[in-house]
Tim17/Tim22/Tim23/Pmp24 family-domain-containing protein
Amino acid sequence: MDSIKKAATDFILTPEYHDLLSIVKGFRNGLVYGAKIRFPHALVMTLLFRRSNFKDMATFVLKATKQHARNLAFFCTIYKTLLILQRRMHGKERPFDSFFAGLVGGYFVFGENNNVNQQIVLYLFSRIMMGLAKLPVKKNVIAEPAQTFPIFTSLIWAIVMYLFRNERDVLQPSLQASMQYIYLDSNHWNTLRNFLWHNK
């Protein structure tokens, strides 16, 4: 048994197998991370908002978890494979190699429009926008970080309020519903009860 363990250890530590094994481990890490993130989220959301029998609820949680884990695993596999291939073709990794690998992986893995993919992409989009707000400071275009955040947030709120008032149907239904409740339903009441306690 020790000899098998030693042979396996020697294999995974052999430098010429490193690239291939990094792809395998990336696939594994995508599965694990996707399951760790999606399972508790899907479980809580199902318990809070779904009204069905236990079997249907469990099926929904497991299906969402499987899809999230699978997508991260396959995206990582495509991304790392393309990075390695480009590095081998050009002798080194170039700055836009990661962009190309992400572009291809994103198209093939996250291109289907479904709830899990939408949530992942919206999460990434929000983090990208925050990163872009910090970029002018990093590049010394703006001296103070405090100058970028107010500009960024005011633009975000300006755009979302414009869309809600003028092009509402392009916003996600959950966002429409929350904004309807806060900004429009607050315009209507006819008793003290539905002014203070109930809405409408």
